[in-house]
Amino acid sequence: MSEPKTPTPPPAGDTYKGWVFKWTNYIKGYQRRWFVLSNGLLSYYRTQAEMGHTCRGTINLATATITVDDACNFVISNGGAQTYHLKASCEVERQRWITALELAKAKAARMQAESDDSGDDFSPSSPPAAPGQGGVSQNSEVQSALRTLGSKVEDLSTCNDLISKHGSALQRSLSELDSLRMTGEAGDKIRQVTERATLFRITSNAMINACRDFLALAQAHSKRWQKALQAERDQRVRLEETLEQLAKQHNHLERAFRGAAQANATADNTSAAGPGKGEASDDDDDDNEFFDAMEEAPEFITVPADPQFHKSVDIHSPYTLIYSMNQESPSQELVPLKKRRTCISDKPNYSLNLWSIMKNCIGKELSKIPMPVNFNEPISMLQRLSEDLEYHELLDKASKCQSSLEQMCYVAAFSVSSYSTTVYRTGKPFNPLLGETYELDRRRESGYRSLCEQVSHHPPAAAHHVISNRGWTLRQEITVASKFRGKYLSIMPLGTIHAIFEKGNNHYTWKKVTTTVHNIIVGKLWIDQSGEIDVVNHTTGDHCHLKFAPYSYFSRDVARKVTGVVMDKDGKAHYVLSGTWDEKMEFSRVMQSSRGENGTEGKQKTVYQTLKAREVWRRNPLPEGAETMYYFTDLALTLNEPEEGMAPTDSRRRPDQRLMEDGRWDEANSEKQRLEEKQRSVRREREREAATVEEDSLTDLSLKSAPHDSYQALWFERCEDQITGEQIHIYKGGYWEAKDCGSWEGCPDIF
């Protein structure tokens, strides 16, 4: 019978099949048989059709020995009555079988050893499981996963040994080839080298397949373990917060007790210890005692916190989740966390010819062109700016770093993470009205609170200030310039972002890259980010250069790729960052750098030798049904949720935006036109007043050169940035105090 012309592929799993010649007797010699290797057992049949009913023999590889006779022959024996003398069609085919057999033997030996020790997993000395058997199930699952992972590691070890073995043989053959003269045996040696090179390639492929199996398995279980770990972390945080509140309550009661004892030294001990009487004995100092107790809270917990956070707690807002005391009942219970919404109304399916509107906008500044809400998403630019805090935990981690260079990695990852929310978001946010504000108070959940204000309308500019009790401050003023080029729309954010950390007083700055919306005329809209970011630590001189690669149809690189290098002030590289702006970022420590080959532009490339990469950031999954909710993230879904105590200028009070979110787009368009016309009327009135002042003060050169629109922001003041030298708006304070008192008299009527 003829042999198949196409060689059998190398083993990629636990089963391997194929035709092999088996020695039968001296009369018939070697006969062709169908061999099947599965689950550590090697079986053979006369034909493939016999597999369903007649097995001619089986040998257990766990206790078998495998030896090689010559180029094509090999022997398998279990030391007893079973011995198979086998012959492959060629040396390459024989090596495929040897590799598969050795892997199967190693796995079978491990399984047998684990079977012998399986009784120890649940021995009588082990602690009993929970009544619901949840502990047993979880333990079994973990044990099974660990066994499988261990098995894959052993496969890698076996393949490594085989590669070393065949690599040595190949090296010897190459050495012999080098020492040969051009004689008749040169052809045989060359053939031998070729065969051994083929064997080495086959074994390498087997190892690669084993690596792939290991990686796939590790990734499958990694997600489950990450969720379990996150649940444990959340539980720990909740317990720590509860402990903090209990410590505050205990401290307050202790102070109340001491105050009552001093006021009435002759009173009964039971009365003096009563919480109600102790509180009543010193009503005038109640507030001071309460805040003192909060300042001393770090004595009872190890969670880092800013003492000023406790001093500025808002005890009036129902959305500020603190543990507050009642004068009559100091044992007030904890206020539960506010449950925020997880969905909004589905986006209506309105058809609109985008080109019929955009064709008249080519080359113009889009902020000056009225657009229907059909192109919008139901949040304002101020809320979109607040979405930069989606991954605020990167700054939390950065504030704890001991090394400024490692801290730079987290800051750089934070600068990239803000773009992950834009990958599917082709809708345009509402242009804020002049004087419009947006607050995001998440001190209880995340330790920060944020305030944005639209400080200029032409050009549109928004000032943003964030303070966190976890040791960092973020501020920025962003002016958005946009141009429509026919096929695509370019959005260019102008302005500098500042991140300041209390620990080490490190001050970082960076700018945003250009966002491009493609397929404006025809096709499905899609977004790309391109450009470069320089993150600079002005305290130490460290810097990180990030490059956002633009999408190219002909590029072999992964789409949306971001790369960067963290260097100290002397230009020495310490970390390399890589990833994508829509998925994840990793960083690796540089151990050594050297100059490599010249690149495509003639520049010499730098080669960095790094340690294993560590994941620094990964995008959160979108909520279920996000495609019908403007592809909003979990945070974005809550941004326009109404809350009590908001300023009258807050974006959540904007009527056209609220109507759009509710799906009433026709009414939203009418309301949007009304608001824009009202804003234009107010601006014309300001310009008339400014012109009158100018006419009355012609001799005053400073007034004569003043701009017509003399608008001044309410919560931010204009000044020169000491770091960049730019004219920017800095938060001057007063907003949160006004909210505490409910005093909004200074707010303009913009809605």
Automatic annotation (TrEMBL):
GO biological process per UniProt: lipid transport
Domain of life: Eukaryota
Annotated ranges, domain PH: 13-106
Keyword Transmembrane helix carried by entry: no
Basic and acidic residues composition bias: residue spans: 650-691
Biased composition (Polar residues): 263-272
Membrane topology according to the record: Peripheral membrane protein
Coiled-coil spans in chain: 222-256
One of the Pfam families matching this protein, by short name: PH
SMART domains: PH
Disordered: annotated segments: 109-144, 262-289, 641-698
A single cellular component GO annotation: plasma membrane
GO molecular function: sterol binding
Cellular localisation: Membrane
UniProt keyword annotations, A-Z: Coiled coil, Lipid transport, Lipid-binding, Membrane, Phosphoprotein, Transport
Family: Belongs to the OSBP family.
Name of this protein: Oxysterol-binding protein
Organism listed in the record: Cyclopterus lumpus (Lumpsucker)
